[in-house]
Specification:
With about 325 residues, this protein is an alpha/beta fold. It is about 30% helix and about 20% strand. An eight-stranded parallel barrel has the order 7-8-9-10-11-12-13-14, surrounded by seven helices. The protein has a four-stranded antiparallel beta sheet with strand order 2-3-1-4, with helices on one face. Strands 5-6 form a two-stranded antiparallel ribbon. It binds phosphoenolpyruvate and manganese (II) ion. The site of manganese (II) ion has 5 residues, from loops. The site of phosphoenolpyruvate has 9 residues, from loops.
């Protein structure tokens, strides 16, 4: 249950109520709200005087549910807003991993040429093998910051474990929680204590319910700046790397109030399929796209097969603009 407290309740009183009712206390849209387990179906009589409004929830998708808050939440990616009434489709570009200054600068230039401003590059890579490239770590973060200073780009990078959050928020604007880290409650709780936007990727073996509940960990801790990213789930099909769950995206749009970003690169796994898949994503009307691009994909240190070279990336972005307009969105 979500209970919005009356404006007359002080913060100290609200904290005492939260403790008494074993609930979370956060501020949402300027109002103090308590969140209990969704198994609570009746407003406790001791809260009747203090509650301005309350919502009985069906399950533990609560703060992210349209049942509680019907409008899509507006979330900032640097100085661009997505969700709300914006109808922006933000393109998150850049390579899978930051590999060198030359490489990340070349991607930054391409984004700038296309009037895009959101650069993503991994510095702590959660690889499937301990023997493959693990990322440049802090050196990569420094390069990303340099690109922010030179080009004014908004920076997104991924945390592989909770100990890196502190460092990542110092250097970047948006924290990515990867598919493999989606269940990591250490990371989710650490993200909940920052005010940075958190982009959570769906674990490739998780249900939509589990996915959104990961977002609830961040939101119930007080950080409502969460964006969901569908990046493909594992199915019986092996011809493509994963299967982009567009039905799941329709479900999320119907039931959840968080902005949704789609990642055709990781879903497809092969560059040849990424442009047409991206167009299908745009046609759904989505809040953003995550597309990997690299100056020379064949020698990329991670995800080589799926990254678009700059020429293909540029053509794609230019083709997406009128498509997005057809469904009332703007590529930014
Ligand atoms: C990535 O974004 O480069 C990545 C590792 O993706 P995922 O967590 O979706 O596998
Ligand atoms: Mn990648």
């Amino acid at each position: 249950m979500i209970i919005a407290l009356k404006a007359t309740i002080s913060h100290t009183e609200a904290l005492a109520l939260a403790k008494q009712h074993e609930s979370f206390l956060i501020t949402d849209d300027g109002k103090q709200v308590l969140i209990t387990s969704s198994s609570v179906k009746e407003l406790p009589s001791s809260l009747k005087e203090d509650a301005e409004n309350f919502w009985v929830m069906t399950n533990d998708i609560q703060l992210a549910s349209r049942k509680y808050r019907p409008q899509t939440r507006e979330v900032a990616i640097g100085n661009i807003l997505i969700g709300g009434n914006t109808k922006n489709t933000i393109v998150v570009g850049g390579p899978c991993s930051v590999e060198s200054e030359e490489q990340i600068r070349s991607a930054s230039i391409v984004l700038k040429e296309l009037s895009l401003s959101t650069l993503r590059g991994g510095c702590y890579k959660p690889r499937t093998s301990p023997y493959s490239f693990q990322g440049l770590g802090i050196e990569g973060l420094r390069l990303l910051r340099k690109m922010k200073e030179e080009f004014g780009h908004t920076i997104i990078t991924e945390a592989r474990d909770a100990t890196q959050i502190h460092e990542i928020i110092e250097y970047t604007d948006v924290i990515q929680v990867g598919a493999k880290a989606m269940y990591d409650q250490g990371i989710l709780r650490a993200c909940s204590k920052t005010n940075k936007t958190v982009l959570i990727k769906r674990g490739f073996g998780t249900t939509l319910q589990e996915f959104v509940q990961a977002a609830e960990f961040v939101m119930s801790g007080g950080n409502l700046n969460v964006v969901l990213c569908e990046r493909g789930i594992r199915t019986f099909e092996t011809g493509t790397r994963f299967t982009l769950d567009l039905c799941g995206v329709a479900w999320l749009k119907e039931h959840c109030n968080l902005p949704i970003i789609l990642d055709p690169s990781h879903a497809m796994g092969y560059a040849y399929g990424v442009p047409s898949l991206t167009k299908a994503c745009v046609a759904m009307g989505v809040d953003g796209l995550l597309i990997e691009t690299h100056p020379n994909p064949s020698v990329a240190l991670s995800d080589a097969s799926q990254q678009l070279n700059f020429e293909v990336f540029k053509t794609l972005i230019n083709e997406l603009k009128p498509l997005a307009n057809c469904v009332g969105y703007t590529i930014v």
